[in-house]
Amino acid sequence: MKSFCFLFIFYFLCSCTSSAQNDRINVKEETRENLFPQTKQKAKEALVYCQDNKFNTDFCILIDMQIHSGLKRFFIWDFRKDTITHSFLVSHGCGSNPWATDYTKDNPVFSNEDGSHCSSLGKYKIGQRAYSNWGVHIKYVLHGLEKSNSNALARYIVFHSWEETPSEEIYPEGTPEGWGCPTLSNENFVLIDALLKRVEKPVLMWIYN
Asked: CATH no. for residue 152?
């Protein structure tokens, strides 16, 4: 009887684990499938903006803050191939919550105010490559191009890597939240840095919700 009970409990726990894993996979796939048309539309608008403003027209960076922070929502969109070529986890600002937590993993708060510790929505020009105290010690200055992110320079909002940002998806947990900078894992930042270093025209980063 004891053996039967043990086997039943073991089977039940395994079934629950398997079901939870399947649910997570389904959420990921549904998210990608449902939001891809919106991503593609944003990419079309981004291309027009890049053409009109003499930005790089090989690729841009799209960050969809609708997506749970434990899922990949940082996209490198290749204009020539008309698709996503790379996708990564990216952090957003913690706001009034403790730093490096994930309290707003599915409902981030946005602000352009200095000291808010929030991310700002809008289009950015990726500017100068410089030294960073964080991650792989490289950062890119971000120039806010809209009213919603016009204080990016004053707030020291930059694009950099951070040891707390994972390389792989961690849903249902969220990516640790910083003070408003979009950050990638060290490993993934090295990949995008290689792309950014070799372009001559400014690259567009668009953070939207």
From this structure: 2.40.440.10
